[in-house]
């Protein structure tokens, strides 16, 4: 068996087909009384030929499995941006490859804006159906479409909450598909909760029901000019573009993701797999 590729831990400019680096963040929260939790995050794959082909997804799956994280999160945008020069890959083979991810506490996913807007099935059915959502059914990956799941860990438990995309119909100037109150409905007051939301902008709402939000969407701006990320797709500019963002006792981790939107180019913002360690204290 070929060993999984070794993840680069250093910062470097990215070539178009460079293998993702590994970025690590530590979140210390005084309300976390469970054992330390490790979360691997793989965001914004935008699977397509030639930029992120299925063979590359397979290598990423092997590398993530080798990290031995407790939990694996996939915060959306599996499909190609149709403005990107390349050939799209259907949802079914993408989810088939990702179905080989393994973690003791499971693998969970939410949909991103491109999973809706660039899904032929969604557009043909006026967003009544979605090819990624249908591929996730029965895959072993938990699809958290505005819902929460309780996860036991070290004799206690926490809640993982998932939002559907906030920008799924932005092109049509229509509201997104996220429903925060539905998503948090099952979570007891005061219970430790982690939110997975494709777009980071919800963090500005100040919702204290989750102490940690994990997002993608921005690609780190896809261009990082000494910390200036002018291409960041956010209403808040570069404020939520990348990395560990804090607001009092709340934390957000924004992954730069794997793939591309618009142009197949990353300038000083390499693709990345993210490892988050949640611990008590803070």
Description:
The protein is α/β, with parallel strands linked by helices and 282 residues long. The chain has one domain: Purple Acid Phosphatase, chain A, domain 2 (4-Layer Sandwich). Helices cover 15% and strands 24% of the residues. It has helices at residues 54-67, 91-98, 113-117, 120-124, 131-136, 180-184; strands spanning 21-29, 37-41, 48-49, 71-74, 87-88, 107-109, 142-143, 147-153, 156-162, 193-196, 212-215, 243-247, 250-254, 272-280. A 6-stranded mixed sheet has the order 1-14-2-4-6-7, with no helix packed on it.
Please give the largest β-sheet.
Answer: 6 strands, mixed
Number of helices: 6
Q: What amount of the residues lies in strands?
A: 15-25%
Strand order of the largest sheet: 1-14-2-4-6-7
User: What's the mean pLDDT score?
Assistant: 93
How many discrete domains? 1
Low-confidence stretches: 8-16
- The count of β-strands is 14
CATH homologous superfamily annotation: Metallo-dependent phosphatases
CATH topology: Purple Acid Phosphatase, chain A, domain 2
Global structural class? alpha/beta
Topology:
Blueprint: E1 21-29, E2 37-41, E3 48-49, H1 54-67, E4 71-74, E5 87-88, H2 91-98, E6 107-109, H3 113-117, H4 120-124, H5 131-136, E7 142-143, E8 147-153, E9 156-162, H6 180-184, E10 193-196, E11 212-215, E12 243-247, E13 250-254, E14 272-280
Parallel strand pairs: 1-14, 2-4, 4-6, 6-7, 9-10, 10-11, 11-13
Antiparallel strand pairs: 2-14, 3-5, 8-9, 12-13
Helix pairs in contact: 1-2
Protein name: Calcineurin-like phosphoesterase domain-containing protein
Pfam families: Metallophos
Domain Calcineurin-like phosphoesterase: 38-220
């Amino acid at each position: 068996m070929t060993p999984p590729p070794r993840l680069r831990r250093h910062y470097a400019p990215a070539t178009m087909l460079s293998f993702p680096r590994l970025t690590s963040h530590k979140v210390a929260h005084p309300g976390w009384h469970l054992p330390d939790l490790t979360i691997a995050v793989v965001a914004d794959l935008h699977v397509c030929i030639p930029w992120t082909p299925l063979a590359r997804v397979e290598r990423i799956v092997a590398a993530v499995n080798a990290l031995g994280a407790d939990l694996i999160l996939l915060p959306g945008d599996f499909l190609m941006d149709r403005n990107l020069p390349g050939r799209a890959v259907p949802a079914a083979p993408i989810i088939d490859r990702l179905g080989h991810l393994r973690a003791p506490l499971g693998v969970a996913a939410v949909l991103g804006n491109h999973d809706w807007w660039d899904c032929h099935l969604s557009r043909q059915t006026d967003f009544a159906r979605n090819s990624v959502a249908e591929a996730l059914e029965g895959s072993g990956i938990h699809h958290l479409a505005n819902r929460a799941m309780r996860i036991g860990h070290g004799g206690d438990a926490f809640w993982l909450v998932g939002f559907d995309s906030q920008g799924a119909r932005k092109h049509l100037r229509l509201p997104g598909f996220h429903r925060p109150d539905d998503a948090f409905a099952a979570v007891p007051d005061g219970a430790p909760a982690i939110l997975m939301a494709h777009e980071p902008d919800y963090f500005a709402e100040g919702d204290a029901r989750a102490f940690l939000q994990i997002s993608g969407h921005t690609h780190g701006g896809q261009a990082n000019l000494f910390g200036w990320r002018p291409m960041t797709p956010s209403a808040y500019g570069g404020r939520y573009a990348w990395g560990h963002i804090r607001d009092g006792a709340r934390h957000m981790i924004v992954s730069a993701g794997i793939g591309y939107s618009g142009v197949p180019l990353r300038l000083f913002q390499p693709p990345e797999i993210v490892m988050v360690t949640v611990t008590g204290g803070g």
